[in-house]
Design goal:
The chain is mostly helical. It has a single domain, classed as Orthogonal Bundle (Arc Repressor Mutant, subunit A), CATH 1.10.10. 69% of the residues lie in helices and 0% in strands. It has four helices and no strands. Helix 1 packs across helix 4, helix 2 packs across helix 4 and helix 3 packs across helix 4. The longest helix is centred in the C-terminal third of the chain and has 23 residues. It is elongated, with a radius of gyration of 14 Å. The protein starts with 13 loop residues before the first helix and ends with a helix.
Length: 81
């Protein structure tokens, strides 16, 4: 399916369920928001580097990152209900 999604084979331990929830909420972000979150949080790129990679101003990359994190928090809170 999508390359950035981890392989979820194996038993459904708590960490597997956590990964499934995270995978689900990440998939609800726009492609651009997901790219920014993955590049920063998973790949370790700095926001300035992400802005260059995605050819956007630094301020735009930062605002999209923070907006995406807010969306993720809200979605995760809804998943916990």
């Amino acid at each position: 399916e999508e390359e950035w999604l981890p392989d979820l084979k194996g038993d459904f331990s708590e960490s597997s369920l956590d990964r499934m929830v995270l995978q689900t909420v990440l998939s609800r972000l726009s492609v651009e928001e997901r790219q920014i979150v993955i590049l920063h949080s998973v790949e370790g790129f700095k926001h300035r580097e992400i802005a260059q990679i995605l050819d956007m101003p630094l301020g735009t990359a930062l605002s999209k990152y923070h907006r995406a994190l807010s969306k993720l928090r809200k979605m995760l809170e809804e998943e916990e209900k």
